[in-house]
Amino acid sequence: MSLRMLPSTVRFAALYLVALLAGHLTVLGEPGAMPVIWPATAVAAVWLVDRFDSRWRWVDAGVLGVLTTLALVATGMRAEVACVHGAAAVLGALIFAFAAPRVLPGVWAAGSDPERRGRPLATLADLLRVLLVATAAALGAALVGGLGEQLVTGDDVLARTAIWLVRDVVSVLVFGPAARRLRDLPGARPAWPEAVIAYALSAAAYYYVFSVNERLPIGFVLLAITVWVALRLPTVLVIGHVMAFGTAAAVFTVHGQGPYASIEASTRGTQTLIVQLYVGVLALVGLALAFSRDERTALIERLRASEHEATEKAGLMTTIVNSMTEGLAILDQHGRLVLRNPAAGRLLGSTSTVAGGTTLGSDYGFFRPDGTPLADADMPYHRALAGADVEPMDVLVRNAAVPEGRIVRFNVARLASPGGPQHVVVVFHDVTADRRHRDELMSFAGVVAHDLLNPLTTIEGWAEVLETELAGYRPAERVARIQRAAARMRTFLNGLLAYTAARDGKLMPTTINLQLMLTDIANSRYDQAESSGAPPPAFAFGQLDAVEADPVLTRQLLENLIDHALRSVPPGVPPQISAAAQPAPNGMLRIDILDNGRGIPPGMRQAIFTNFHRAEGHGGPGLELAVCKRIVERHGGTIEAVANPYGTGTRMTFTLPAGRSAYARTLENQWQHRPQTGAAASNRG
């Protein structure tokens, strides 16, 4: 045995001997009777739990058994019966030491290191698990001890086995928590005046019930004092109260005093069992109430800490939101303002921080950037509440607070709230200066493009003259380079002019039969392919309803999209273009144009609609799709590019106002009953 282990074993052995002697003092009747209080069971359990991971644990178990046997023999018990009791004590302690660290992880842990001993009992779940472990250990010890004693003495020891079981369970309940609480919480500061009053009143009540008026069976009223102590005093003092006055009840009964001493001497076993049950109930009531109060207190502290933390974070978040230069607003499912910061009020023409449930609608003076009115249903947050994916949208705000007008960009996102009401958050950004600067640049570019067309025409004319005069000579190849560069320059200038027209030109909407317009464009592209010897494109048109739009801009939109689709097809592959339409929310018509080209990488599907973007492999000066986006937006629609869901290529999807006039319906009926001729008819077949 190592010197390091020796002090721990000696300390536990000395404490165990004291517990044995103290328990022997509570024996009712003859020396061989069962004691009422047996703290040795709790000491033995804690001893082997503490030493269970040591390689000397079996030595400790042996010392425990020898001490139990010798102590019981010294008190007058027969040696063979004392050996049975010693073996039972060792078995019960081993069962507890094996089960406690597993059933109560973090509460009772093996090892002499103080850092590994875990926390004390603190919850009702801990108390229940201790009760289960103590019952299992006591049951094992009682069965071995009872059967062994019956084999040695030949007497029926069923009643003694029951007393043994209850005694050991009560011992662990009363003295087990004390082994941790009294050691881990030596510095607890209770309300000392109330503690002194409670202990003094308890002493007086126990003295009265067990000594002054012992014939009156009113011991149950003492539980009320235990309830008071458990609800008011710190848990360490509750444990001390249960230990002190539970032991006092047993001592009074041992000396023939109290309501339980009136049981006849012939039924000493019953008397012992009743006293033990009283002490057990006392311990369960006191510990259960104390632990539940501790849990409630801990929960309240956590809630208070969480509330304090949430309050601090909310204050910090409010400060951050109110100091933002961008506007921020939160709207409920009905489009009513829940909250907005001061910047949002300034941008929208109001100064209040909270809108008090008002609706963010047309009364604020919302228009499209070209000045046309913007209906509430077309606002991006309404579309987001309807479940649509909304891109950032520029809105002209003009009201009494902002008479000169301001362009505000709306960035909208839905707030995830599963099972609850839907909300959207809107971030406002003033883009007036940016748009003015951009518009000035584009206007300047349009003027420059128009002015450059005349000298470009001169260059193209003289290049044609030079080509004619140098025909057959080597320098003619250099003239061809001039002509190709001039052609690229003309395409670029025409694109600038088209974008300027799409941006600044006055809209003249009318009812347009998309079927007729797309058929005409398809026939022209079929003729171009036939004249150049390229593979003829195949067009397939589905249901195409009429739209209400500017016919010039709509034709430019469709031609640009079809030309982009044709250019994206790899060389040698016959182009296949299809188009169809279907109704969309808010009175719009959704048109899909699909191709079998190379497709557009996911990271570029938004960038292709920006000014001067040139996608690799798609050619073009980078303005055709920007013109398309501008035309669609001027009509109040949206445009996007996604992968073709039916194969390779791209699906261009855009929306335009649906045709509303009777003329539009007439055109549709005429088209449906019209015989199909020409290239489009053959392609549809």
TrEMBL record:
It is an enzyme of class 2 (transferase). Residues 313-349 form the PAS domain. The chain crosses the membrane at residues 32-49, 61-79, 85-104, 124-145, 157-179, 191-209, 236-254, 274-292. GO terms for cellular component: plasma membrane. Residues 447-660 form the Histidine kinase domain. SMART domains: HATPase_c, HisKA. It is a multi-pass membrane protein. It catalyses: ATP + protein L-histidine = ADP + protein N-phospho-L-histidine. Keywords: ATP-binding, Cell membrane, Kinase, Membrane, Nucleotide-binding, Phosphoprotein, Transferase, Transmembrane, Transmembrane helix, Two-component regulatory system. This is Sensor-like histidine kinase SenX3. The lineage of its organism: Bacteria, Bacillati, Actinomycetota, Actinomycetes, Micromonosporales.
